[in-house]
Design goal:
Blueprint (H helix, E strand, L loop, with lengths): L1 H19 L14 E7 L6 H9 L1 H4 L2 E7 L3 H9 L5 E5 H9 L4 E9 L9 E5 L15 E4 L5 H12 L8 E4 L2 H10 L4 E5 L2 H7 L3 E4 L1 H5 L4 E8 H6 L1 H20 L1 H11 L21 H13 L9 H4 L2
Parallel strand pairs: 1-2, 1-3, 6-7, 6-8
Antiparallel strand pairs: 3-10, 4-10, 5-8, 5-9
Helix pairs in contact: 1-4, 2-11, 2-12, 5-13
Subcellular location: Periplasm
Family: Belongs to the bacterial solute-binding protein SsuA/TauA family.
Main location: periplasm
Length: about 325
C-alpha cells in the first residue's frame, strides 16, 4: 500500500505539471498516416486481447498505430496516464477505485479481463500445498496468506471468500510477496496459503497444490477484474481517439474470448510463460462490457476492509 500511495502522490504531482505544460499530443499526428497511441500494459495473460487486436489489424482499421509499453505494475501506470506520458493504461479495478477516491481524474474506456465465474476453474485462486489441513477459505482465519500487493484486489477478494465460507476475515494475516516467489514460500512453510493467478496457478497444480477457494468467483458473479483507462483530460480533449481505441478494444476482446488457442499462442510473444504450461492455463474471460454491479461490490469491499474511507461513484469511473 505504501508503494501505491507513493504512486498516487507522484501522479498528483505529474497531473499538476501536465496542467501547466503538457507533452506532445499523440492524437494530433500530422499527415495521412495512422495516429500513434501509447498504451502501458503489464506482461500477463489478462492483456492478450490488445496484442491479438494489434496482430489482427483491429487498431489499424481505426487508423491507430499502437505503441505498447510494458510496465511491472499498475502503480507505475496510473501516474503515466494521468500525466499524459501515455494515452491509455491497464490496471485492476480496485487500484482504479482507490485512485478515484484520491480524486485522480481517471476514466475506464474498456474492460480488460474478468473471472470465468466457475468455482475451481478460474484463472486465479487460493492454493495450499499437498497435505495441508486447510480445506476451505473458512480455515484461512488465523493463517498466513501471501498476496502480490497488500490492500488491493487480491486481499479484499480473499477476505470475501473467507466470509462466504463462514470464516472470520479479520483474523487472516496477509503477507506481500511477488507472484514468482509465492510457491517457494508455500513449499517452505513460510506462508500457509497463496493467492495466485496464471501461470502460477497451473504451476501450483502441476506440483500438487490444491485450490481451496476461487476468490474472484466468491466475490461477485462474473467479476470484472481489470480494465483499460485514460485520464479525464484525454477523454475530454481527444474524444475521437478514445472512441476509436475503445472500438478496437471491443473487437479485440471479442476475438480473444472466441479464440482461446490464439490467446495461448500469442502469450509467447510478450510474456516469459513456460511454453509447456500454455495448454494447461485457465484463461480469464474477456468481456466487452464492464460489470457495473461487480465494480460496486469491489468498491464496497474497499471501504469495508479499510482501503478507502468513502466509496467513489463508480459511474464516474465508467465509460
Amino acid at each position: 500500500m505504501i508503494r501505491f500511495r507513493a504512486a498516487l502522490a507522484a501522479a498528483s504531482v505529474l497531473l499538476l505539471a501536465a496542467a501547466c505544460g503538457g507533452g506532445q499530443d499523440s492524437s494530433d499526428a500530422s499527415g495521412d498516416g495512422p495516429t500513434p497511441v501509447k498504451v502501458s500494459v503489464i506482461p500477463i495473460v489478462d492483456v492478450a486481447p490488445i496484442y491479438l487486436g494489434d496482430q489482427q489489424g483491429f487498431f489499424a482499421e481505426q487508423g491507430l498505430k499502437l505503441e505498447l509499453q510494458s510496465a511491472q505494475g499498475g502503480a507505475a501506470i496510473v501516474p503515466a496516464v494521468v500525466s499524459g506520458q501515455v494515452d491509455f493504461g491497464f490496471s485492476n479495478m480496485t487500484s482504479l477505485l482507490i485512485a478515484r477516491s484520491k480524486d485522480l481524474p481517471l476514466k475506464v474506456v474498456a474492460p480488460g479481463a474478468g473471472s470465468t465465474g466457475v468455482q475451481g476453474k478460474d484463472f486465479g485462486g487460493v492454493v495450499v500445498k499437498a497435505g495441508s489441513p486447510i480445506t476451505s477459505a473458512k480455515d484461512l482465519a488465523g493463517k498466513r496468506v501471501a498476496v502480490n500487493t497488500l490492500n488491493n484486489i487480491n486481499d479484499t477478494t480473499v477476505r470475501a471468500s473467507i466470509r462466504a465460507a463462514g470464516g472470520d476475515a479479520a483474523k487472516v494475516e496477509f503477507t506481500e510477496l511477488a507472484f514468482p516467489d509465492m510457491l517457494a514460500a508455500l513449499d517452505k512453510g513460510n506462508v500457509d496459503a497463496v493467492q495466485v493467478v496464471e501461470p502460477f496457478l497451473a504451476t501450483a497444480k502441476k506440483d500438487g497444490g490444491r485450490v481451496i477457494a476461487s476468490n474472484y468467483v466468491d466475490t461477485a458473479p462474473h467479476l470484472t477484474i481489470a480494465g483499460y483507462f485514460t485520464s479525464q483530460k484525454t477523454a475530454a480533449s481527444k474524444p475521437e481517439l478514445v472512441k476509436k481505441f475503445a472500438a478496437a478494444m471491443q473487437k479485440s476482446l471479442k476475438y480473444a474470448d472466441e479464440n482461446p488457442d490464439a490467446v495461448r499462442k500469442i502469450l509467447a510473444t510478450y510474456t516469459k510463460i513456460d511454453p509447456s504450461l500454455t495448454a494447461s492455463l485457465t484463461l480469464p474471460e474477456y468481456p466487452t462490457e464492464v460489470n457495473e454491479a461487480s465494480l460496486q461490490t469491489l468498491s464496497e469491499l474497499a471501504v469495508q476492509d479499510g482501503l478507502i474511507k468513502q466509496a467513489p461513484d463508480v459511474r464516474d469511473l465508467l465509460p
